[in-house]
Amino acid sequence: MKRKPPANSATWETTQEIARALPGAVEGTSYGTPAFHVRKKLFVRLHQSGESIVIMIDLAERKALMELDPETCFITEHYLNYPAMLVRLATVRPQALRELIADSWRSRAPASLVAEYDDKC
Questions:
Q1: Which strand (E) or helix (H) includes residue 15?
Q2: What is the CATH code of the structural domain delimited by 12-113?
Q3: 60-96 tens-digit pLDDT
Q4: How much is the pTM?
Q5: Engineering a disulfide at 90: which of 3, 5, 41, 104 sits with its beta carbon 3.0 to 4.6 angstroms away?
């Protein structure tokens, strides 16, 4: 039986709200799960577990985040040599989720979209 997440935990809907606000974000699918792409490059998707999201991230940054908060930031063997990380929705802080998704988007978006976003912020 699945545990019910805490009332204040993030959800896929929270992720959608954050991702939709990013320039050029397009909803679609990846590996059969809901996902967001920018210029056909994946930047966030719902993990097949339904309890985590997958984001793109630099390997060194991933290592640091996983050491800092292993309950929230982790990988499976599948992602060992790939610049991606799983983020557990039930434990991620809202501001951290926003930053992780935006950073993943930045790593995949063309410079012109990143500049457009930065000009608005």
A1: helix 12-20
A2: 3.90.1150.30
A3: 999 999 999 999 999 999 999 999 999 999 999 999 9
A4: 0.91
A5: 5
